[in-house]
């Protein structure tokens, strides 16, 4: 499978790239600066560019089987929100995918993005309530991405995480679609693994699994 990964220089993104390569996939890692990913592999192509550069995005998206985004929002406590670079980046990615393919999009987010299956529980309520008060820009980014995804015909999946700071990988990961109870923490390795697994799970299309350590 040929995949393009955005956010490949982040902690989850680096793990995602390595897991995809270990699985035998051809990986294009798109990032803002060279030398941000200390990894070399025959099946790895690193491309540097801006997240809203449509022509550059076309180069790295067209002809692939799936696109994965491990991009995350900047954390700020400022009350005013003037720019949404993460949502703008997703808008550009989605636009290019709609025009040139592929249809399969996996993106990383939090339960601040709501799913129709969500029921009121701590794992679906708290991650939206707390950022709205204390991290308004990150909350606005999530809501912006949610609006974009729900308006597109792409085959998207949102892998939702709450606390990606678990010290171990436990016994692998489990998921909830928001309608069953879930734990709050997940390791970065398991978050990346869930994203990669999602590329092969058609039953997760238009779903928003919350991933957590078993």
Automatic annotation (TrEMBL):
Transmembrane segments: none annotated. It comes from the Bacteria. One of its GO terms (molecular function) is riboflavin reductase (NADPH) activity. InterPro entries: NAD(P)-bd_dom, NAD(P)-bd_dom_sf, Polyketide_Oxido-like. Pfam families: NAD_binding_10 (PF13460). Residues 7-198 form the NAD(P)-binding domain. PANTHER family: FLAVIN REDUCTASE (NADPH) (PTHR43355). This is NAD(P)H-binding protein. The lineage of its organism: Bacteria, Bacillati, Bacillota, Bacilli, Bacillales.
